[in-house]
Specification:
alpha+beta; two-stranded parallel sheet; 2 helices; 14% strand; flat
């Protein structure tokens, strides 16, 4: 990884309470995914962040 490259942080949690989402985002997480994890959701989230990174390069 290049120096200075920012890696998105995605929280995967079993907590589905709005305050948990807010706390994770306030702590610096970039995205919040609630379990059960669905493959299509993973693909959507990862593609979003990979696409943003590709556009920043």
């Amino acid at each position: 990884m290049e120096h200075g490259t920012r890696v998105p942080i995605i929280a995967f949690t079993a907590g589905n309470v709005l305050s948990e989402r807010d706390a994770a985002l306030a702590a610096g997480m970039d995205h919040f995914v609630v379990k059960p994890v669905v493959e299509e959701m993973n693909a959507t989230v990862f593609n979003k962040w990979l696409h943003l990174k590709a556009n920043a390069d």
